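User: Predict the structure for this protein chain, please.
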Amino acid sequence: MNDTFPLLIVVGSILAAGCATPNITAQDDRVTRGPWSEVPAIEMPTGDTSIPIDLLRDVADALLKRPGAKVCDPMTKRPIVGLSTEYCSTVYVAGDRDSLSWRVTEPIQGSHNGCRPRFVVQDNDHPASRVWVVGYIHNHPCGAPPSSRDIRLWPTDTFDPHVAMAEVRLIPGNPVPAVYKNTGIEMASALVAELQDGTRLFLRYFPTGEVQQWSAAKTGWVTLARCAPGPEGRPPQCDEPLQLLRE
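Assistant: Here is the predicted structure, written as structure tokens:
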């Protein structure tokens, strides 16, 4: 592919992981607060229990405005120490099985090449028993090269080699999973890639192999291909070359 992606947001979503809340206080450095005031809570969409497009759009708008979130060296296409900045937000759902909403926490500022998310959430509207952490979001300034963890989880044959890839990190939970109308939250990774002209591409990758891209024209997710996990240290292998939608 000829287009380059100057920056990227990556999202990890974890299947029905309940948030076991230890005996800690809001001042504990393991705790993060939510929801982030700049990202509205998104009610669980009917018929889709994975990362919703509205959440991806809102997070991209808010996170990429942060100082340093899009700063990179135009010559090396690498982050600049002291200027480029990664941020992490925790992704969670809150409510009950009949009314769940997707939410993200206030972002935590990291360095030019990493940040460490927190996995205990104190929500302003719900007690800990009605909060389930399901993943995290972080940005890569200027689409830094993928980490070894990222590249194992995203098909790479359609992306510029300088584009960072999404990463899923499993989170131990309590025995009660997050369930919406008798359906568990679907595991999916997602990524938002911003092109040099400012347009954004939204993709999801499921552990069952489907890679989907959001189509504004069809107002829905379009499956691009099915990709099986690759051998250790290698990216997933797709049944056909991925062709991104151009709208």
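The longest helix spans residues 53-63.
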